[in-house]
Write a structure and sequence with these properties.
alpha/beta; single chain; Rossmann fold; DNA polymerase, domain 1; two-stranded antiparallel ribbon; 10 helices; 6-stranded parallel sheet; 2 domains; about 230 residues
């Protein structure tokens, strides 16, 4: 039975390295328009603000309009490709074990800018369909991260009360700050700025360290959960 506050996770770049699948999906859609592929590092730099921003930046990289009908058509073509692109995505080392340990005391939730269809497809591929008590995706609400509404909704759906957020990027840090939650930074993801710039409550490089880090952060930053 869970007794601690909710632990909410970002997905791409935090629990899983999905950049190879996202890269392949973007280039598949670009190829349909006979556009040359973009390099992995460039596509990786576009990840974090949702599918629309990802496609807009990918089109802009080829000098094409990053808005309007062309972007809408690209999104329509990209969405099913994105949902099916799961075979290159792997959890970061130690993630399943850390989630198992944390789930004994905490409800676990996801707050991601990835669309819900692509999120559920990936979770099913990983065998994580029942892993999380709540999932708020990039199209679950009118607002997306860094607006705090999705993170607040994830906490509420996981039972409410004290919580913290685990992510890998500037978007995640800003979201946690706006929602008033402690932020734990995974240093191995897709961020562009320094750890100091993101000012997390704590940071880590190995998921084996996360359960003890969560316990420490909860003791220092969160009031006790009722019950």
């Amino acid at each position: 039975m869970t007794t601690g506050g909710a632990i909410v996770f970002d997905l791409d770049g935090t629990l899983v390295d999905s950049a190879p699948d996202i890269h392949a999906a973007v280039n598949e859609v670009l190829a349909e328009d006979r556009l040359p592929p973009l390099p992995l590092d460039q596509v990786k730099s576009f990840i974090g603000n949702g599918m629309r921003v990802l496609l807009a930046k990918s089109l802009a990289a080829h000098g094409l309009p990053a808005e309007g009908d062309g972007l809408d058509r690209a999104i329509d073509r990209f969405a099913p490709v994105y949902s099916a692109s799961v075979t290159r995505t792997l959890p970061y080392p130690g993630v399943p074990e850390a989630l198992d340990i944390l789930a004994v005391r905490h409800p676990l939730a996801l707050c991601t800018n990835k669309p819900m269809a692509a999120t559920r497809s990936l979770l099913a591929h990983l065998g994580w369909g029942a892993r999380f008590a709540a999932i708020v995706a990039g199209d679950s609400l009118p607002a997306r991260k860094p607006d705090p509404a999705p993170l607040s909704q994830a906490v509420a759906r996981a039972g409410g009360g004290p919580a913290l957020y685990v992510g890998d990027s500037e978007v995640d840090a800003e979201t946690a700050r706006a929602a008033g939650l402690p932020f734990l930074l995974f240093e191995g993801g897709y961020r562009h700025r320094s750890v100091a710039d993101l000012a997390p409550a704590a940071s880590f490089t190995r998921f084996a360290a996360l359960p003890d880090l969560v316990a420490d952060i909860c003791a220092r930053h969160l009031p006790p959960a009722e019950g």
